[in-house]
Amino acid sequence: ETGVTQSPTHLIKTRGQQVTLRCSSQSGHNTVSWYQQALGQGPQFIFQYYREEENGRGNFPPRFSGLQFPNYSSELNVNALELDDSALYLCASSFGLAGGISYNEQFFGPGTRLTVL
Amino acid sequence: DAKTTQPPSMDCAEGRAANLPCNHSTISGNEYVYWYRQIHSQGPQYIIHGLKNNKTNEMASLIITEDRKSSTLILPHATLRDTAVYYCIVRVLNDYKLSFGAGTTVTVRA
Q: Of A29, A9, A51, A42, which is closest to residue A106 (Cα–Cα)?
């Protein structure tokens, strides 16, 4: 059983650019959540995808968007990058019931470190 | 979501029990207490969760007070590899997100 993987590990972009981060969920999981973790802070929920549809969103602007594919892997896209977007981006997968509700723990990947210059 | 309060940091001697407190005085009856930890440069790792009864697994024990306003995570024999940030989270079972606070930075010293 493979765990949650994310790519790339590190990424450097300049302000105004766009970025795509990728996540492969753990085998058997159908739900993917994305979190942003600024330096020295706890992770903040961005959104969750269940069966290819967004079913929950945190307090992030629309320039943060995502996709989930039929194999339950996922992408996080961020447009018009700002300096404050520099953070560790974490993906977590779980097995969700109807509506993406998961009674079990979420399994996190190692994250992608994004630096915006 | 109910908020939690944790001490910002604590030290523990290797081989001794580490007792991590968490205050959640506004917890609702249907909210569970979850604990995750994050070792440096890794994603958070689930430890344990419970509603009102004490729980134990291979990683830790969770003690929840009778009024559910606070809890303690116990690492029975701390090792250097337990050095991490520990997050106490309260969550209703059907909430899709985890709301992390600042957590407690635990340093296990040899």
A: A29
Q: Evaluate if residue B14 carries a pLDDT over 80.
A: yes
Q: What gap in Å lies between CA B27 and CA B22, rounded to an integer?
A: 12
User: Is B41 within 8 Å of A110 when comparing Cβ atoms?
Assistant: yes
Instruction: Please answer yes or no on whether A110 and B101 come within 8 Å at the CB atom.
Output: no
Q: For A32-48, what is the mean pLDDT? A: 95
What's the pLDDT at B94?
75
Between residues B44 and B41, which one has the greater pLDDT? Answer: B44
CB B95 within 8 A of CB B1: yes
Q: How far is CA B104 from the centre of its chain?
A: 9
Q: Kindly give the pairing relationship between strand A31-37 and strand A44-50.
A: antiparallel
Question: In angstroms, what separates the C-alpha of B5 from chain A's closest C-alpha?
Answer: 13
Taking only the tens place, the pLDDT of each residue in A59-90 is 999 999 999 999 999 999 999 999 999 999 99
Closest by alpha carbon to A66, among A57, A75, A58? Answer: A75
Kindly tell me if the per-residue pLDDT of A103 is higher than 70.
no
Nearest CA in chain A to B44: A108
All residues of chain B having their beta carbon less than 8 Å from the beta carbon of residue A102 are 96
Burial (CB < 10 A; 0-12, 13-18, 19+), residue B55, is middle
Q: Taking CB atoms and an 8 Å limit, are B96 and A111 in contact across chains? A: no
